[in-house]
Amino acid sequence: MMYIDPHIHMCSRTTYDYLVMREYGIVAVIEPAFWLGQPRTNAGSFKDYFSSLVGWERFRASQFGIQHYCTIGLNPKEANNEALATEVMELLPLYACKEGVVAIGEIGYDDMTEAEDKYFCQQLELAKELDMLVLIHTPHRNKKAGAIQSMERCIEYGLDPSQVVIDHNNEETVEEVLGRGFWAAFTIYPQTKMGNARMVEVVRKYGCDRIIVDSSADWGISDPLAVPKTAQLMLDRGIPEEHVRAVCYENALAAYSQTGQMKASDWLNPQSIDQRQLFSGNSVLRGQEPGIKSVSDFVLIE
Amino acid sequence: MSKVNKLLHHWLLKSVSEKAFAWLEHKQAQISSGAAERVFFTAFSAVPRYLGKQDLQLTFQDLEAAEDVIPGWYPGNWSVDQAGRTLLLLALPHDDAQGYVRSLDQVFSTADMGELVALYQSLPLLPHSELHRQRAAEGIRSNMSNVFQAIALRNPYPANYLDNAAWNQMVLKAVFVGSPLHLIWGLDRRANPELAKMLADYAHERWAAKRSVTPELWRPVGRFADSAIVTDLEKVLANGDTAEQEAAALACAESPLPQAQALLSRYPDLQSSIQQGNLTWNNFSRK
Ligand SMILES: [Zn+2]
Description:
The complex is a heterodimer. By secondary structure, chain A is an alpha/beta fold. Chain A has one domain (3-279): Metal-dependent hydrolases (TIM Barrel). Chain A has helices spanning 15-23, 43-54, 56-62, 82-95, 114-130, 143-156, 174-179, 196-206, 226-236, 241-256, 265-268, and strands at residues 3-5, 26-32, 67-72, 101-108, 133-137, 164-167, 183-187, 211-214. The longest helix of chain B is centred in the last third of the chain and has 16 residues, at 193-208. At the A-B interface, helix 2 and helix 4 of A face helix 3, helix 6 and helix 7 of B. The complex binds zinc ion. Chain A: InterPro entries: Metal_Hydrolase, TatD-like, UCP005295.
């Protein structure tokens, strides 16, 4: 089966992850712009980060047969540094419409401060102006209230629920999100977010309509194979195959292909992989021979 | 409307849908009438979303018209998004040169690969030509081959505006990365003694590593060959493959040194085909 991981932070993952992901059937990933674990102290860091999302990371993924897309936005946490946030808002129009950018995101609330609300709304306006999708990060604390307020703001700013993906859902938020017509994404992330056994039950209970599974894997203890592993668990536990395919591939494609920046032909008829190609003088390879196809090539490290 | 604008308009009109064309015209109008900079930034990025990325379908007459307007302008390998992006760059108000360059700097410094190619390709068409020298030199430093090629090949900007140091670096790098030299516009006109010396040194490096060099390397060398270089040409004539021998013979024919003419006369077949016009540098552009 083919999989899409529509929410994963590859800039904190290794090239080896790409290799394993491809082997497990992941054909495309979406990397939402988020924070980097520690706050950035100037707008230049954002500029380089956005450039790497549309540039180097896209290239690195392509070298291992994975199509890379991204979303561009100012994340909720860093919206609280208002001086910086204002400068980042000026950068967004330079990146939002670049090739492979499928949405404004991930935006939303963390502490639900006034500053977070201000920059969230400004970015919704930008999305509306540019006719783009939005990817919403729901807060870890006070999640339900945060999710509801996010959705209300989206409607207030004229976005259609079909153009908005609400992520990091759980059993407490799913009904509200689906009921209002939004896409409901679930992050399979150890400890803090959604577990894969719980995910199986969510799909059993709510079906596969508008539900999306992702890994959100990043620099924390997380699993870049969360999507294929959850799919396997669903199959093992009797979820029909077409439902598994919908939540682990088709729905993400349907949601994000609305921008025209992502289409199945990107990976069904890809340009051939040339691992000798260089990007800005840096090869992904560090002395290895080009043409590595499988993780089993690494069993013996000579 | 400028002649360049007219041509690009005309070509796009026959290559993209009415709806896409209307979007582009709308954006051009907004930008040229002084809309906020973000309108320009977002539209510039968004061009492929509206126009697509297919090739422009240009006729021989179209290419001639381009050459008439700006000698060396060759849009034969341009795509519709590149043409559209160029029109947006041309729409940007430019009375204030500094402001114009500042906007360009912002676009350049945040550009993705596709945008960089369009930007460098359009340099010879943009206003304030002399202000883009640093930018062009920057493009030559790129390690993305398509970006380097966008500035170095089929682009009249470098020959018209770069100083010798930057120009020589560009030619040497083109040899280094294996770009076809005949696609460098103005190569013969901008040949110079330093470049000849750099290329000959490069040939020595390659030979020391038991590697060959492109025969085209000798093209900017002949007129400025000194006796050391003639000795190199002698080696190529004696040991090279056919193409290399032909290139060395052409280089000799272009050299004013009696030593080079004497060398060429030892290869009467090559000498006579050069004299009869059967062997020219154009033979290499067809390979
Ligand atoms: Zn995230």
